[in-house]
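Problem: given the chain below (239 residues), write out its structure.
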Amino acid sequence: MCVVSWISRRVPRPEAPRLRPRVAPTELTKVDFTELIPEPVPFLGQAAYIQLEFFEGLSRAVGTAPTLGAKEGLSAAAGVALGKHHDLIAELRRMDVEPVDVMAPFAPATARLHHAWSEGDWYELLLAIHVTSGMLDGYFASLANGLPTDVARRVRGILDRGGAGLVLEGELAAAIAAEPGLADRLALWGRSLVGDTLLIARSALHASDARGLDEKVEPIFTELIADHTRRMDALGLTA
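Solution.
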């Protein structure tokens, strides 16, 4: 169940907006996410479905992990993602809607993410989860500022919980140090994931009623790409 990849062996997907890959943090345009005001029900449905994808990806990584230590760390991260999913589902039930019905429209786009993850090896799976969860968790937490006050506070608290990041970074850093040539392959793979992650991010904006949305999209995506670049730099990979 998850997004596109643009490496030569993969199937071409719709092209995401073209943005400069590297922007220094001081150059970023600050975005007031409260202006975007997403519709609460579809926003929560999409966020819940994405967390379910992260859980499934992490569970798959646990099953194929080469060491017991990796299994333990990844299983804990998977538990955090599942907890986020259930808590977002609880928010939907507070609104008297059926979570499955709300999540269903987001299945096709997120299924492409799953397909891309399933094509890679264990290290590519780890990097895919690291890239997409890192970008989307912070993005959805920021976008939640446009929700009604009480809902916004609870949803930010859910999405801000740490989980996979440190575990994934540790496993990837150790593997990159131990395996010559892995860094180049993972750098290429990481670049291929960005466009599809941005497509998911944009779909959340399409669900909002904000006026002047198009003008806001580029600085939002520029900031997401800069965040991605910093995450890749921490692993010694070229974004």
